[in-house]
User: Which sequence fits this backbone?
């Protein structure tokens, strides 16, 4: 059973981010496959966690270069997801309780498309407005990004 299918709806037309998102889906599915097969899912989970940490760090670097507020809700959501992922790993390692991993699989599959559609799409839009090139790390116009309100895409965000 596929945990999360990659569809065109997840494409944001930013090649670097789209590739990273496809990798996230692949890691999530590999983790789900291990759970379904009844084998030790921790190696796949470690790979998913490492990928997610790097993925979020990349996005947060882009946010900083494009003028997002340092404590914006996008980065806060990343921190919350990573905290939950690390806590599930702690339960598995210290308490030998794997149930949080099973729950997290489902939760991540539901969370990710919404996050990409709102928060990551807002990041891509801001990058475009500011002329940010993820390959060089250069932002043509940070002032433009700040002027358009480099928010996270959530209606509750103050930007």
Assistant:
């Amino acid at each position: 059973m596929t945990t999360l299918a990659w569809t065109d709806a997840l494409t944001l037309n930013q090649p670097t981010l789209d590739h990273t998102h496809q990798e996230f889906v692949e890691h999530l599915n590999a983790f789900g496959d291990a759970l379904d097969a009844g084998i030790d899912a921790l190696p796949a989970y470690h790979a998913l966690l490492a990928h997610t940490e790097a993925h979020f760090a990349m996005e947060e670097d882009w946010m900083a270069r494009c003028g997002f507020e340092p404590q914006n809700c996008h980065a806060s959501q990343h921190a919350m997801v990573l905290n939950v992922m690390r806590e599930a790993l702690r339960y598995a390692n210290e308490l030998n309780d794997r149930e949080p991993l099973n729950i997290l699989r489902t939760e991540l599959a539901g969370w990710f498309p919404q996050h990409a559609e709102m928060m990551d799409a807002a990041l891509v839009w801001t990058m475009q407005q500011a002329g940010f090139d993820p390959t060089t790390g250069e932002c043509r116009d940070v002032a433009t990004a700040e002027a358009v309100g480099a928010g996270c895409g959530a209606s509750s965000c103050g930007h």
User: Anything to note?
Assistant: The radius of gyration is 17 Å. The longest strand covers residues 132-133.
